[in-house]
Amino acid sequence: MIRILEATASTNQDMIALASAGEAEGLWLRAVTQTAGRGRLGRIWQSPPGNLYASTLVRPRPADPSPASLGFVAAVALHETVTPWVGEGALTLKWPNDLLLDGAKLSGILLEGADGAVVIGMGVNLAHYPEGLERAVTSLAVGGRGAPDPALFLEDLAAAFAHWLGRWRSEGLAPIRTAWLAAAHPKGTALTANLPDGESIKGLFDGLDSDGALILRLADGHSRVIHAGDVFLI
């Protein structure tokens, strides 16, 4: 089920309230525009009409994989949905769940807990992208084959997410991890990881561990496993 809001502060904030009130899994909220959209690490997410701003709700079950790994489910579903709108090989996933188009950020995914549920917000630059940021950003209108209608795009995304969520539940994280790695930048890509404690680490992308943590190969040949942080291509 998809519910449309003309304007709201944040679809994630709305979904958190609904989750706390007992809303069932599977609902999607889409806003035409947001007045207080946000991304990871508290960043402001600019939200003009024409892009996708949507959130959904998952209620983890006892036998499910780690709820944190739902970010990989969302990333794989989003990659699948965007692929028809771009050229072959133009899309890559960057840990933990950024989607890049020709190396520029196209979308963001934000997971938040809500009374035992997980709210997953997705913002995709379909028609517009913000300017003046410290990292390269783009939109499908500029780098793809035009800007899809947000309502139709979300229908495809919701179907893809349901498919990968079902596999996550029935098969575990392994097939999601395999799909994520197939869509990611190649091994050996130079990355910088800024960790929550302020440490900054440079290394080469060396895949994911079985739980989805980032593996960096350092200059001395050792590997470092990163469980949380902000990652940039060098």
Instruction: Specify the number of helices.
Output: 5
Q: Give the low-confidence spans.
A: none
Global Rg: 17 Å
Main β-sheet description: 7 strands, mixed
> Which structural class is indicated by helix and strand composition?
alpha+beta
Distance between the termini: 40 Å
Report a brief summary of the structure.
The chain is 25% helix and 32% strand. By secondary structure, the protein is of the alpha+beta class. α2 (70-82) packs across α4 and α2 crosses α5 (174-183).
Secondary structure: elements and pairs:
Elements: E1 2-8, H1 11-20, E2 28-34, E3 52-58, H2 70-82, E4 91-94, E5 98-101, E6 104-114, E7 117-124, H3 140-143, H4 150-171, H5 174-183, E8 190-194, E9 200-208, E10 214-217, E11 223-226, E12 230-233
Parallel strand pairs: 1-2
Antiparallel strand pairs: 2-3, 3-7, 4-5, 5-6, 6-7, 8-9, 8-12, 9-10, 10-11
Helix pairs in contact: 2-4, 2-5
Could you explain the architecture of this structure?
The protein is an alpha+beta fold and 234 residues long. It has five helices and twelve strands. It has helices spanning 11-20, 70-82, 140-143, 150-171, 174-183, and strands at 2-8, 28-34, 52-58, 91-94, 98-101, 104-114, 117-124, 190-194, 200-208, 214-217, 223-226, 230-233. It has a seven-stranded mixed beta sheet with strand order 1-2-3-7-6-5-4, sandwiched between helices. A five-stranded antiparallel beta sheet has the order 11-10-9-8-12, with no helix packed on it. Helix 2 packs across helix 4 and helix 2 packs across helix 5.
